[in-house]
């Protein structure tokens, strides 16, 4: 391909909306500088590939440019240069072979480069186009390329925090894969596992369990007994069972996984499973057995990975939590400090996500030890570590929501409002506006608004939270009833007495049906309703009462829901 090499400045890549930029203008052929002074002042002149538009009709050019793009990525050079090659290759494929497999495969590379550059919206557009180019009726190659496109699109949505769309793409890919390969192919099992992990991330544990069961069934058919593959599946199933509160089945899966790892000489993996076994024992209040499991894992990690490894810090955090729950507060704080020393000087290979997760867990322990300021500092550090990492929107939102609760508890209501607002903005942007977690955060936001006397805004948040929690949790759920109480109090403060009375009557009926008429909570609701009904009779002389007397006392309790997403709120 004589005449293709020349000298020009580093290319400026435009939006993919143009799909392909025109050839660079005003370039010299003998090594002169680009005529644009602003670019010349910032960029060095590099030797690269110049492709005339007419040469794109050459059928050999597309594969050559695609290889150049892949080689550029592999060599660690400027990804913008790789993007330029890949885009030009796609244009050549489109001209020479038209829409089809070659163009779709090339677009997958273009999308991957866009994703690596953080240009996720453009990556989504490219992948959607690549999927439309393929027809599974044209054979296995087309089917598997379309499957790959859906999976890559799911990964891109996941990086953008849009888990619902991500899972939908994975399911579309799985259906194509099963149709092409059969339902019991080992590759189908890997996709089922991928979907199970995605559902875990979205806290959809029933769906995750179903896909994990399919994975186990297929692997048992194709793998030898006690294989490493089956052990990995059982560890995932144990995580799902633990998240659902099914501790005994979780323990059974972990023991079987541990036996497989021991048989295959995987000492570090055995230690990691021991940590999970310790977590189950801790949840079952079998503290001595939990300590034994943790100490066993700690010994292995120290000897194989070193005393400053993040795996050691994880075990320290587990022991700190255990000793707090058994009332040994000095030991608990000591283990927290040991873990923090490791995270302050992380060894090579420790990821920001690992450090942030550890800081979040330590923060929860400090909060329980009544040291909220120290806990807040750790959460702020965790947010800084994660805020610029793609795919961490939901985790950051969870941490910011927890910060909001802690600010609220120490009386810093404006800071609480800001934290909740940041969390809600991220959750809306990432497609989480229909989840129960989003409803809970809206409820917390409403409480912060009450303390700032923004009663109208509080009512708006409580109403949205009620709609979400009714749909996701049901009307009898404690979270939903808590929002009802908060909304009734807010309506009362706004002068909407009839609306408040109607809600309190509904709450009282619910609590009587579920708890019985003699329950203390039912009695409290009855007193609140009586007070409001009594006051409603004094329309003109109605005295305003403190909203705090009507706000549901359960609204600021906290619980842990899934360790991958930090601490969640109730």
Structure in words:
With 570 residues, the protein is an all-alpha fold. 69% of the residues lie in helices and 3% in strands. The chain is built from 24 helices and four strands. It has a two-stranded antiparallel sheet with strand order 1-2. A two-stranded antiparallel ribbon has the order 3-4. Strand 3 and strand 4 form a beta hairpin. Helix 3 packs antiparallel against helix 4 and helix 9 packs antiparallel against helix 10. It starts with a strand and ends with a strand. The N terminus and C terminus are likely disordered.
Distance between the termini: 66 Å
Order of helix and strand elements from N to C terminus: EHEHHHHHHHHHHHHHHHHHHHHHHHEE
Structural class: mainly alpha
* Strand order, sheet with most strands: 1-2
Portion of residues within helices? 55-70%
Q: Which ranges are low-confidence, i.e. pLDDT below 50, for 5 or more consecutive residues?
A: 1-50, 538-546, 556-570
From the alpha carbons, calculate the radius of gyration and give it in angstroms.
29 Å
Biggest beta sheet summary: 2 strands, antiparallel
Mean pLDDT: 82
Features:
single chain; about 575 residues; mainly alpha; two-stranded antiparallel sheet; two-stranded antiparallel ribbon; about 70% helix; about 5% strand; disordered N terminus; disordered C terminus
């Amino acid at each position: 391909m004589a005449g293709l090499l020349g000298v020009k400045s580093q290319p400026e890549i435009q939006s993919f909306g143009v799909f392909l930029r025109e050839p660079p203008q005003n370039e010299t052929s003998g090594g002169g500088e680009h005529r644009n002074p602003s670019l010349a002042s910032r960029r060095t002149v590099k030797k690269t590939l110049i492709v005339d538009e007419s040469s794109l009709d050459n059928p050999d050019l597309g594969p050559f440019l695609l290889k150049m793009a892949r080689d550029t990525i592999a060599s660690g050079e400027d990804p913008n240069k790789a993007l330029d090659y890949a885009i030009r290759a796609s244009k050549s494929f489109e001209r020479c072979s038209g829409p089809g497999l070659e163009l779709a495969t090339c677009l997958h590379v273009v999308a991957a480069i866009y994703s690596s550059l953080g240009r996720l919206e453009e990556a989504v557009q490219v992948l959607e186009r690549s999927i439309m180019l393929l027809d599974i009726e044209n054979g296995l190659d087309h089917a598997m390329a379309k499957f790959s496109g859906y999976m890559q699109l799911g990964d891109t949505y996941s990086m953008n925090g849009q888990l619902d769309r991500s899972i939908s793409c994975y399911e579309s890919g799985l259906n194509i894969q099963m149709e092409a390969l059969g339902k019991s192919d080992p590759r189908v099992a890997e996709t089922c596992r991928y979907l199970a992990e995605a559902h875990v991330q979205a806290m959809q544990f029933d769906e995750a369990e179903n896909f994990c069961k399919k994975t186990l069934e297929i692997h048992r058919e194709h793998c030898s007994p006690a294989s490493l593959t089956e052990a990995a599946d059982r560890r995932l199933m144990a995580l799902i069972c633990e998240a659902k509160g099914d501790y005994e089945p979780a323990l059974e899966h972990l023991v079987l996984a541990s036996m497989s790892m021991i048989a295959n000489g995987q000492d570090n993996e055995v230690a990691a499973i021991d940590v999970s076994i310790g977590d189950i024992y801790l949840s079952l209040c079998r503290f001595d057995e939990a300590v034994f499991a943790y100490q066993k894992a700690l010994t292995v990690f120290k000897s194989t990975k070193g005393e400053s490894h993040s795996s050691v810090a994880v075990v320290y955090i587990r022991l700190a939590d255990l000793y707090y729950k058994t009332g040994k507060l000095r030991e608990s704080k000591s283990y927290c400090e040991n873990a923090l020393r490791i995270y302050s000087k992380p060894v090579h290979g420790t990821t920001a996500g690992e450090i942030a997760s550890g800081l979040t867990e330590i923060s929860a322990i400090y909060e329980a030890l009544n040291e909220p300021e120290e806990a807040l500092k750790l959460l702020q550090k965790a947010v800084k570590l994660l805020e610029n990492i793609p795919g961490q929107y939901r985790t950051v939102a969870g941490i910011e929501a927890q910060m909001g609760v802690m600010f609220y508890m120490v009386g810093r209501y404006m800071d609480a409002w800001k934290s909740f607002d940041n969390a809600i903005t991220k959750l809306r942007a990432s497609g989480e506006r229909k989840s129960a977690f989003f409803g809970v955060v809206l409820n917390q936001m409403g409480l912060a608004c009450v303390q700032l006397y923004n009663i109208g805004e509080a009512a708006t948040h409580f109403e949205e939270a009620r709609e979400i929690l009714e749909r996701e949790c049901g009307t009898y759920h404690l979270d939903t009833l808590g929002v009802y109480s908060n909304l009734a109090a807010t309506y009362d403060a706004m002068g909407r007495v009839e609306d408040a009375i109607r809600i309190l009557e509904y709450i009282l009926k619910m609590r009587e049906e579920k708890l019985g008429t003699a329950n203390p909570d039912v009695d409290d609701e009855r007193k609140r309703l009586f007070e409001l009904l009594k006051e409603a009779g004094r329309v003109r002389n109605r005295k305003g009462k403190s909203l705090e007397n009507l706000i549901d006392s359960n609204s600021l309790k906290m619980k842990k829901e899934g360790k991958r997403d930090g601490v969640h709120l109730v």
